[in-house]
Amino acid sequence: MRRVFLFVLIPMAVACAIPAESVNAQSQVAAPPPQSVPAGKVLLPNKAGSAKFAVIGDTGTGDKHQLAVAKQLTTTRSQFPFEFVIMVGDNIYGSNAAKDFEKKFSTPYKPLLDGGVKFYAALGNHDDPSERFYKPFNMNGERYYSFKPADGVRFYALDSTYMDDKQLKWFEDQLKMSGSEWKIAFFHHPPYSSGETHGSDETLRTQLEPLFVKYGVNVVLTGHEHFYERIKPQKGIAYFITGSSAKLREGNITPSDFEAAGFDTGYTFMIVEIVGDDMYYQVLTDTGKTIDSGSVHRVGKVEPTPNRTAQPIVPTTGNGKKLPPAGDRK
Amino acid sequence: MKVIRSFGVITVVCAIGAAPAVAQKKAAPGPPKPQISDATREKAADQNANPDALVLADFQKRIDAYMAIHKDAAKDAPPQKETNDPAKIKAAQEALGARIRAARANAKAGDILTPEIRNKFRRLMYPVVQGPAAQGTTGSAKAVKADVKDELKENKEEQAEEGGKPVVLKVNAMYPPDSPLPSTPPQVLMNLPKLPDQLEYRIVGKTLIIRDVDANIIVDFVPNAIQ
Fold this sequence. Notes:
The complex is a heterodimer of chains A (330) and B (227).
Chain A: H1 2-17, H2 20-23, E1 51-56, H3 64-79, E2 84-87, H4 98-106, H5 110-114, E3 118-121, E4 145-150, E5 153-157, H6 165-177, E6 182-186, H7 202-215, E7 219-222, E8 228-234, E9 237-242, E10 259-263, E11 268-275, E12 278-285, E13 290-297, E14 313-317
Parallel strand pairs in A: 1-2, 2-3, 5-6, 6-7, 7-9
Antiparallel strand pairs in A: 1-11, 4-5, 8-9, 8-10, 11-12, 12-13, 13-14
Helix pairs in contact in A: 6-7
Chain B: H1 2-27, H2 38-47, H3 51-76, H4 86-103, H5 115-129, H6 132-135, H7 139-162, H8 186-191, E1 199-204, E2 207-212, E3 217-222
Antiparallel strand pairs in B: 1-2, 2-3
Helix pairs in contact in B: 3-4
């Protein structure tokens, strides 16, 4: 009897002795299973004349992980000739002396730069705003800017660290003027995120989401969280987080109502192709493993677009099922 | 009897386990007390105004005065242009910084961020850095707490990883380019007065600095902004 009593009480005592914070350990959240896609295989249509690009985020460390992702990105381009790369911020971490631009940008991506690939950067919270004068970032000396890489496709780079009225007005004016079918916003802080560390930036969501909805922004690309996450369409808008192209917060994704897929155990980048009303995406790791892919279908009128309806996202590999054990994933 | 003793042991163990959490709650500092100068109080009474509003108006006036110097110095400095050579970006910053430094050679800490402005800033930052949001355990308060603490932790880690020269907290000093530029959580920025595009807030350790982005110099700072 006494043994039984102690058997029950000792674990209770141990539980009490652990500080409260560590009792509620967060469980890891699902990502689509890799299925049987051969390493490095590109699943996108790869059609001639389509808009092809890659997305990387939180890159500027200059360490082996950035180099590994950059190498895989270069390998991928030999199959899928993307013309430009979107950088969702934290382009130069830490020291930002002249030599750091080489170590943390131009050296890792040299094969791509030499191949004529253009990079378009947004500023992250770790970036010096003077990066906007660095020509290879193609920011035209501005903290926020837009560009049109192909007919019917316009990108808007925003500075989410300093989201003030002036920038919001600029963004709204730009959206009003645009006749592009595809409006893609990219910036650093995610309005929706299942990250344990940061989570959703609700203030930013309050500021930007009404504009996205009113003017028909189709897709939002962000970083900040050091993992990959695809959010279930919110008010008809597809949100992606790609903040693990050099930094990683393992096991940082927590369960949430809005997560469609997530991957927090490896370094990743996205490749994207826009063909007509469909945007195809594929997310690969630094070893070439596909961890998510699918398409976003654009619906609704182009201009004006006040009555935009949902943008269904169709995953083609996995659909947010539970991941295998952490050790088996990378 | 032994059963009672076991309960006693468990109670003690539980108390020890819970102690750090209790201690943490007790240790959380209260909001800074307002420190308004007599002159500002008198002025507020005369104008039937809120003393805090006068403090912030005074801050704006001092920032405007700084910006007049900045703009004047920028007229003679080589303009910042897009370039493939980051060294040229740094050189343009240094050139402007040298001109601003010369124009305000006698500037000292507290010229812009006076003691009562510093106090106001500490009070503005308190809610998200140490106040209710920072102590929050649910919903958006939890997110704010995590975000603020994580960014401050990341800043420390970067400094440790990258080394670099320590930041000299001195008005007019150049922000060392080989030191990490620490981030400032958006929640903190939301609570502070907006700055012109040429200036920004950064948190270095426990100090809030105002940095001239174009000139890469420290304009002024608030020591112990995070207590």
